[in-house]
Design goal:
CATH architecture of the largest domain in chain A: 3-Layer(aba) Sandwich
Helix content of chain A: 40-55%
Number of helices of chain A: 12
Radius of gyration of chain A: 21 Å
Structural class of chain A: alpha/beta
Strand content of chain A: 5-15%
CATH topology of the largest domain in chain A: D-Maltodextrin-Binding Protein, domain 2
Number of domains of chain A: 2
Oligomer: homodimer
Number of strands of chain A: 11
Chain lengths: ~350, ~350
């Protein structure tokens, strides 16, 4: 008989992934590429996901709607970009004085994070997966060092979303400027300060040449998590096997992206310091005032936004318990090691 | 024609995984179960790995030979168990004053760790994959609190491998006692102290009832990594697709195990403290003397063991750079958060 040699071969599935990031952010953009590579490897090339940089298929911030409307099957983004639509999205990424990278992963994988966020995203036809984290970001580049909270008054700082909202309450003036225009604005003095990511990404943009004071910690992003968004109808159309492919490949890309930042930041920091960058810890009164302002914002959101309240309550309990535990053996070990001549 | 309905179906592959752990260590043993579950899910049940507790197929510490000799196709273990064969194995797990959990993952995924360890394992016919981490362990349970280095002299402490070797140099007397016999030895005073894992596992064994002083940090295990060992011939016999299945499922189990410990330790710590456990940081002179002793051991190994020297050189450079970087924004953020009323 002329029975085909292979009658059960699964047809090739082709998806598109819209990234919110430019290719130049190779560590973040690269997480989506790594995900796509793993999906293909796991399926013998039968599940192919093409990865598109921000702006290629849709605007960088249009990916939430793009996945929701099934313009694309999936996206890779930093959910706090959608803070303006609803601050609840930021709980899937970072909020000021939130969880650090490991704690965020623990909340997603072992705590209630993934469950609660999946419920939240369901109304947008999105199934979310944690996919990458930068670790604690730096507090950004300042033309003059910040010596006390008084220096924050009137400070024009390039900073997005939630961080900006809190900074405003301590007197700063947040500015919305695309990555590509920050250098010139800092150089001209149109702005006084700008935050970006950390040494590895910041070095490439050269901010140290025009604003050499590099403050830390970036308390508005203590462990920002990136998210894979999958359109729920596209997801439900997959076999159980291919659903597992998505989950496992996202997990590999998740751990790999944090490892890349951890591995690459130290050398970039050395180069920056060798090129004249001055490192400064934010003064305690800046930290304290910002913390107080952030807690006020959260109390207001608890009162006005039920979706936020439901998830933030779980998140903040988890954060309290995590910090209670991490202060002992993790901090005790790290603190000692950081003081040694190694 | 009577052509079979499916002519290209991959035959089912059945492997056995020998764990070094008892089922009671559900978080560690569970990582192997999670790995097996993902392998099955990724292959539609066509690649089945049965998971066997320590002692079931071979002794807990026999798994290195078991995989090397292809008695089983794979194992899940803590490579520092093989410290007696060669201390180099410990670099795939934990050494005193080594990398923390995130740094270890960064060394494996982004640094040279995986590459160098694969070369080392090749002579044993093993392909290794990082698969889980407990995070920084606690320093263990003491019948009397340690107030200075003088209290370490003659102290009989249950502690294994590398940690014991260093403790010996500061005057303690390391004891080798299986997990199930620690409680009685502590109760009778046959030993003065014992280390196990951290709050979640330690609570189950009830040590707080007989040795209530719980010291931290466990400087001999700042981020012990578990390893999946796969027999290299079995591995090479897999399709590219199934090789990717192993890698991705191990990555998911890797991130999931750390998340489980991070998620579960805080509640256990609260229970312990509520039951009379006293938390104490190790005195600075104990940390300093132990650090010095560890560095002496490493210098001796560098001189006597070329395999160690090659990998430790890379490891220690990585450790230096990681701690240089982590002391700024990561530590600055964590330190502030741990001081807040959350």
């Amino acid at each position: 008989g002329a029975a085909p040699a292979v009658v059960n071969a699964q047809a090739t599935i082709r998806w598109r992934l819209a990234s919110s990031f430019p290719k130049s952010l190779d560590t973040i953009f690269g997480a989506a590429e790594e995900f796509s590579r793993q999906v293909s490897a796991l399926t013998g090339g039968k599940f192919v996901i093409s990865v598109h940089a921000g702006g290629e298929l849709m605007p960088a911030f249009g990916v939430l709607d793009g996945v929701s409307n099934a313009t694309v099957e999936c996206a890779h983004t930093a959910p706090y970009y959608f803070f303006g639509k609803d601050p609840t999205y930021a709980l899937d990424c970072a909020i000021p004085f939130g969880l650090n990278s490991r704690q965020m992963t623990a909340w997603m994988y072992e705590g209630n994070g993934l469950k609660l966020l999946r419920e939240f995203y369901a109304k947008s036809n999105i199934v979310n997966f944690p996919m990458g984290n930068t670790g604690a970001q730096m507090g950004g580049w300042f033309r003059k060092p910040i010596t006390s909270i008084a220096d924050m008054k009137g400070l024009k700082m390039r900073i997005g979303g939630f961080g900006g909202k809190v900074l405003e309450r301590v007197g700063a003036v947040p500015q919305n400027i695309p990555g590509g225009e920050i250098y010139q604005a800092l150089e001209k003095g149109t702005i006084d300060a700008a935050e970006w990511v950390g040494p590895y990404d910041d070095l490439k943009l050269g901010f140290f040449k025009v604003a050499p004071h590099y403050h830390y910690p970036g308390w508005w992003e203590g462990g920002p998590q990136l998210s894979l968004y999958v359109n729920s109808k596209a997801y439900e159309g997959l076999s159980a096997e291919y659903k597992a492919v998505i989950e496992n490949a996202a997990a590999l890309a998740h751990v790999d992206m944090q490892a890349k930042y951890d591995g690459r930041n130290p050398a970039a920091l050395k180069t920056l310091v060798g090129s004249g960058t001055k490192l400064h810890r934010f003064p305690k009164d800046v930290m304290d005032a910002s913390f107080k302002a952030a807690m006020e914002v959260y109390a207001e959101l608890n009162a006005s936004n039920p979706a936020w309240k439901k998830i933030y309550e779980d998140y903040s309990n988890f954060r309290r318990d995590q910090n209670l535990w991490f202060r002992f053996t993790e901090a005790g070990f790290d603190d000692f090691m950081q003081q040694q001549k190694l």
